[in-house]
């Protein structure tokens, strides 16, 4: 499943640099996917783009953002359950279209 950021986030940005998929953005900042810019998904706190998060599959054994967070605001998203195969396919898609 994709990983999400909850309202516990204090927008310290510690997680942003850890993401190999460039899936984490500051509140209010537009995100980039496939060379296109899209409106921010959250204005209140740092957010993860579900279409870009592979749970770090294809790069690392564990999500890199979770241990970076001082407030335990980064958790699995129960509404976006994905298999490892689906996550790898997402990673390969991002390899092709660009992050
Ligand atoms: S789990 Fe990995 S890919 Fe997903 S947002 Fe965190 S660092 Fe990025
Ligand atoms: S590390 Fe945690 S508190 Fe800091 S921006 Fe990321 S989710 Fe928010």
Description of the structure:
The chain has 99 residues and is an alpha+beta fold. The chain has a single domain (3-93), classed as Alpha-Beta Plaits. 14% of the residues lie in helices and 16% in strands. It has 1 helix and 6 strands; from the N terminus they run E-E-E-E-E-E-H. The protein has one helix spanning 84-97, and strands at 3-5, 24-25, 31-33, 36-38, 47-48, 74-76. The strands form 3 sheets. It has a two-stranded antiparallel sheet. A two-stranded antiparallel sheet has the order 2-5. The chain has a two-stranded antiparallel ribbon with strand order 3-4. Strand 3 (31-33) and strand 4 (36-38) form a beta hairpin. The protein starts with a strand and ends with a helix. The mean pLDDT is 96. It binds iron/sulfur cluster (2 copies).
In short:
The chain is of the alpha+beta class and 99 residues long.
Order of strands across the widest beta sheet? 1-6
Determine the number of helices (DSSP H or I, runs of at least 4 residues).
Answer: 1
- The number of distinct structural domains comes to 1
Bound heterogens, unique: iron/sulfur cluster
SSE string, helix = H, strand = E? EEEEEEH
Structural class: alpha+beta
Q: Whole-number radius of gyration?
A: 12 Å
| pLDDT < 50 runs, ≥5 residues | none
**Helicity, as a percent range:** 10-25%
Span of the ends, CA to CA: 19 Å
Q: How confident overall, as mean pLDDT?
A: 96
Largest sheet: 2 strands, antiparallel
């Amino acid at each position: 499943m994709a990983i999400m950021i909850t309202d516990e986030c204090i927008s310290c940005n510690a997680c942003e640099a850890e993401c190999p998929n460039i899936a984490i953005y500051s509140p209010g900042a537009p995100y980039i996917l496939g060379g296109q810019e899209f409106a921010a998904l959250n204005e209140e706190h740092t957010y993860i783009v579900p279409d870009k998060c592979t749970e770090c599959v294809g790069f690392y054994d564990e999500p890199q953002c979770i241990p970076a967070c001082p407030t335990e605001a980064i958790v699995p998203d129960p509404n976006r359950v994905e298999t490892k195969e689906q996550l790898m396919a997402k990673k390969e898609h991002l390899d092709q279209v660009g992050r």
